[in-house]
Amino acid sequence: FLPMDERSAARLAALRERVSDVYVHLDLDVLDPAEATANPFPAPGGLTVDEVIDVLRMVRERFAIRAAGIASYDPETDRDGRGRQAALRFVDALVQAVPASIRPRSAPVRQ
Question: Which of the four pLDDT bands, split at 50, 70 and 90, describes residue 106?
């Protein structure tokens, strides 16, 4: 198996040959339940929060992100708040794709 970043880079390069703008849709059930349980459908062996953020960074570097959606969050399932924290980190990673000149002043970007 290739590491996650190498697999993602190859797939993103192939997509970049066809498009320059993307819509990012992220279902939180891609997360390994050891990282966070955001809904009743966790994916054992899924991605870590850092792996998702790395992929979002790779997308940001290659495409203009025109819109994004984060889905599949159930606060009843997220008993320890790690799913919410993961989602907030993903929002921060996506907001970094918005040029500073048009970013709303109220949109916090955490490093």
Answer: low
Q: Are 7 and 55 in contact (CB under 8 A)?
A: no
Q: Look up residue 23 and give its DSSP letter.
A: E
Using N-to-C axis directions, what is the helix angle for 49-62 and 82-95, rounded to 10°? 20
Radius of gyration of the chain (CA): 15
Give the separation between CA 75 and CA 51, rounded to whole angstroms. 22
Distances (CA, A) of 99 to 21, 58, 80, 95, 102: 15, 16, 33, 9, 6
pLDDT at 5 over 90: no
Percent helix, strand, coil in the chain (nearest 5)? 40, 15, 45
Q: Is the pLDDT confidence value at 85 over 60?
A: yes
Rounded mean pLDDT of 38-43?
91
Q: Is 71 helix (H, G, I), strand (E, B) or coil?
A: strand
